[in-house]
Specification:
Blueprint lengths: L1 E4 L2 E2 L2 E2 L1 H17 L3 E6 L7 H5 L5 E5 L9 H15 L3 E5 L2 H14 L3 E11 L2 E8 L4 E7 L4 E5 L16 E5 L30 E5 L9 H10 L3 E4 L1 H5 L20 E5 L5 H7 L4 E6 L5 H5 L2 E4 L2 H15 L1
Parallel strand pairs: 1-4, 1-6, 4-5, 5-11, 6-10, 7-10, 12-13, 12-14, 14-15, 15-16
Antiparallel strand pairs: 2-3, 7-8, 8-9
Helix pairs in contact: 3-4, 5-9
Bound molecules: flavin-adenine dinucleotide.
């Protein structure tokens, strides 16, 4: 039995969870074993229609009066208890911060091995042969994962999301874990949302990134305008975030968001490896940079050599004329 942990927002599964779900379903099919999902939160029961499109037969809904807010140890412990109860052989999760945190806690409780950010996974001789990302994707590792129970996460934006031809009608089974006070040492009790509107970076089809070359917070207006004209979202390099020009949520890279847009327009960004691992999922990269020797020029599909303060407004005018 493969058990897929699903993250969701008010009953709507995250894109990364659907990627991981597709990976889990393929894995279950290749092993000829069952496939079920597990989700937390009051609204999880509402996931059934959506999960049915991905071939889920059963949804385990974890019920506990203190589990509504995120609590990493308690969620991991619940996952471990459910795994024992249904005798799951593998737990999968999206390769997100939360997916990794929950799997790590569940793995510690189950004393089971964990492989994160998997790109390919194949059952072989009672174990898994894996290809996985290390160092944010700048290194690829071939490894073998063995254990009575194993845990794997799917690298973000690396697995296609595929619906099944005939949707299933998942049965919802409630699971009430037995938890103690010590499992709630860390618990989210309040969530503050930012005022930002628009598409989240990880899901945007167009991303306009600004780096140190932008020169200051006010000059992001031109990038915002470009993003608006193209129905996209603005991101930033770590240098721009460290300068305090943009919030950390906007950071793209190893220690930020992983993006996979149709086009990434990188303005005033040098193309450091730690930045590029966040945007290697982009279909196309257009770099705007004054330096022909900048690393990003080599890595981009298209490049404009010039000052972004001239190029971006001209681009905005040209797009406006076309619309
Ligand atoms: P710079 O490297 O200073 O480049 C600025 C670029 O702008 C230059 O290429 C310059 O030619 C160009 N430019 C200047 N003026 C203009 C102009 N007027 N018009 C057009 N172009 C212009 N970085 C990330 O981005 N994301 C991460 O997640 C991340 N994680 C990291 C993790 C670790 C452990 C470490 C050590 C580093 C990490 N970094 C990360 C930092 C990374 O190494 C780089 O320092 C950073 O990406 C550089 O940002 P930048 O390209 O904006 O700045």
């Amino acid at each position: 039995m493969i058990l897929a942990f699903v993250e969701h927002e008010s009953g709507v599964p995250d894109e990364t969870s659907l990627e991981a779900l597709t990976m889990a379903r393929d894995l279950a099919a290749s092993e000829g074993t069952d496939f079920a999902a597990v989700a937390f939160g009051d609204e999880a029961a509402g996931l059934t229609d959506e999960l049915g499109r991905y071939g889920v037969d059963e949804l385990h809904h974890v019920i506990h009066d203190r589990l509504e807010g995120y609590a990493p140890e308690a969620w991991g412990e619940s996952l471990a208890q459910l795994t024992r109860e249904i005798d799951a052989s593998t737990i999968t999760a999206p390769g997100t911060d939360r997916g990794h945190e929950v799997l790590a806690h569940a793995g510690a409780t189950l004393d089971a091995p964990l492989a994160t950010n998997c790109l390919e996974i194949e059952a072989a001789d009672g174990a898994y042969e894996l290809r996985r990302q290390r160092w944010g994707g700048s290194l690829l590792e071939h490894s073998r994962l063995e254990g009575e129970t194993t845990l794997v996460s799917a690298a973000e934006h690396e697995h296609p999301i595929e619906e099944v031809e005939t949707p299933t009608d998942p049965a919802v089974t409630e699971f009430a874990p037995s938890l103690e006070e010590s499992h709630f040492r860390v618990q989210v009790d309040r969530v503050e949302t930012t005022d930002e509107e628009g598409v989240p970076l990880g899901e945007a089809r167009v991303v306009v990134g600004g780096g140190r070359g932008v020169g200051g917070p006010e000059d992001y207006d031109k990038l915002e305008e470009l993003a608006d004209l193209l129905g996209g979202t603005v991101g930033a390099s770590r240098a721009a975030v460290n300068e305090g020009w943009r919030p950390h949520d906007d950071q793209i890279g190893q220690t930020g968001a992983k993006i996979s847009p149709d086009i990434y327009i990188a303005c005033g960004i040098s193309g450091a490896v730690q930045h590029m691992v966040g945007c290697k999922g982009a279909e196309n990269i257009l770099a705007i940079n004054t330096d022909p020797e900048a690393a990003i020029i080599q890595k981009a599909d298209y490049a404009v050599l010039g000052d972004l303060h001239d190029v971006v407004p001209e681009l905005n005018d040209a797009i406006r004329e076309q619309q």
